[in-house]
Amino acid sequence: MRSRTIRHASVAVVLAAGLVLAGCAEEESTEVQSAGGTSPGEGKAECEQLTQFGDLTGTSVSVYTSIIAPEDAAQKKSYELFTECTGAEVEYEGSSEFETQLKVRVQGGNAPDIAYIPQPGLLASLVRDDDAVVEAPDTVAENVDQWWGEDWKTYGTVDDTFYAAPLGANVKSFVWYSPKTFADNGWEIPETWDDMMAITEDAVSKGMKPWCAGIESGDATGWVTTDWLEDSMLREVGPDVYDQWVNHEIPFDDPQVAAALDRVGSILKDEEFVNGGLGDVKSIATTAFQDAGYPVVDGECVMHRQASFYAAQWEPGTEVSEDGDVFAFYLPTVTEDFGRPVLGGGEFVAAFDSRPEVQAFQTYLSSDVWANEKAKATPDGGWVTANTGLDISNLSSPIDILSAETFQDPDAVFRFDGSDQMPSAVGAGSFWKEMTAWITGQSTADALTNIEESWPAS
After folding, report:
1. Residues 6 or more apart from 332 whose CB is under 8 A from it?
2. What is the annotated signal peptide range for this record (predicted)?
């Protein structure tokens, strides 16, 4: 899914994520390119890493992204320090048709200098199919090694070559709840899956519906259920098997996948547990994902599993905080064997040119300096990063703070959204379709077999 936006049918792309596969990337220089002269940022601590690029006054860097108004305002503000440090200007362009138009522009010889890519699969396609992305310079690789986990660097790597540093991020492994409802019923935030299910059963015993859900999303209906399964896979069998599943090293209908989906079904297909304030199990398929959490506020349901970006979906006036109308907790683990798996999404900074000003901007975006500038430029909240150089005190939104703390937890094991890494015929096709059929009555075996049979032969 695009960071902080709804996923669309155009989101997923043809090739699996930028994980290591056979092949050799074209040799490209990763050395820093300098324009020479004295950098405008010379002597300023916050500009220290950028002075090596020289005086970039009079140059510009074009940036193309899916981040549009009003979120783009904070992006642009966060670049002001870069211009002060280097003299280079940033020409920003956001588009709601980013995924489609980026490929068109690249293939038409009109690529931007930099693009923020929301899917590892799209990055891999631009590298392998179009031979268009420039290898990241050493300064970027050094920043990512210092400020990001190895798993994040993997998603910006294609065929053993590192191309794209991570940028923003979102946490999908959250469950939304009403602090008041929990307090009134004496429930504590669950630490384990069994704890969560104990709350579920207690809610039923008190005549309450414990869960509400909705997976309707236009052409992308079903994506919510894929996120449920991905989170369940990480908790049921762990990150290593999850990676094998995403890359089709085990079949989609492997018994381990079936067990994980049945765990999801133990909640979503139980008439006693769903669909609080909305209907029966089948109503999940027709309830818009944007509306599905609303019954939590009114106490008509107890819990709603959805990503951190859902904070923007609550109706105006809803207070999102630990003592407010709604808040979220980490979707608990089934076992301690796999640490604290975190499912999420984010963007990656891909460059199509290696001019000094482009390398300088890549370096800035991969640094702890930019992470904190961006946080300060977003006082109303709605943005977070997994950059560990982020000072969490610079975040203002309670849910952003919780997200950052989740990313920075030393036990956290991050994995990118699985369907965004799969071939589009699966990730944005059969996976969505079959999970919708499954929620309306199709068996686990039939749903998974149908997806397996749809996987492209090559």
Report:
1. 190, 191, 192, 193, 195, 196
2. 1-22
Could you check whether the bond before residue 275 is cis, i.e. omega within 30 degrees of 0? yes
27 within some domain:
no
Query: Is the pLDDT confidence value at 20 over 60?
Result: no
Residue 58 in contact with residue 87, Cβ under 8 Å?
yes
395: domain CATH number? 3.40.190.10
* Residues 192 and 161 placed together within one structural domain of the fold: no
* Structural domains counted in the chain: 2
- Residue identified by tokens 């963007």 is 347
Write the DSSP assignment of 232-300 as a string of letters.
HHHHHT-HHHHHHHHTTSS-TT-HHHHHHHHHHHHHHT-TTT--TTT-STTHHHHSBTTTTTHHHHHTS
Q: What pLDDT shows up at residue 424?
A: 83
Asked if residue 2 belongs to a domain, the reply is no
Question: pLDDT at residue 272 above 50?
Answer: yes
Domain residues for 369?
45-171+345-416
Helix (H, G, I), strand (E, B) or coil at 331: coil
pLDDT given at position 354? 97
* Distance, CA of 213 to CA of 257 (rounded, Å): 21
At 29, the pLDDT band (50, 70, 90 cuts) reads: low
Q: Which of 417, 383, 360 is nearest to 52 (CA)?
A: 360
